[in-house]
Design brief:
about 150 residues; mainly alpha; 2 strands
Amino acid sequence: MSLWGALLGGCHFILHAAGWLEGGLTASYEKFILDVEMLQMFAEIFQPVATSAEDLGVEAVVEAGIGGHFFATAHTMQRYRDAFYAPLVSDWRNYGAWLDDGGKTATERANLVAHNTLQSFQQPALDPSVSEALNDFVARRRSEGGAPPVS
């Protein structure tokens, strides 16, 4: 939440320490996921407001008519699935539905997201020439007196 001041002040570059706790002395997968969700919300909030005639949907007001509802309009049907931010962790269900599903806290849900993300990770392909260049660099630095690897 300390990002609000920088964002509202118009900052163009922020080096954010997602997942940091204790001033960077430790980190947490759960805190990282919660921070990512906050950053995604900020990014969504700061999107420019769309004001084209198509975005405003004035024709939907006419289509819904007096006493009608917007969910049945073509404008709404084209947009309702992706018109809103889809959270990683936030649970937008009512209390009863949340409780029936185990009443998981945000930290518990973030833990699941983090572990599912780690389990589904697939190492990206690395060009053999890049791998060889990196290995040569590391070998050269070690031979020049670089720090020994931590085991």
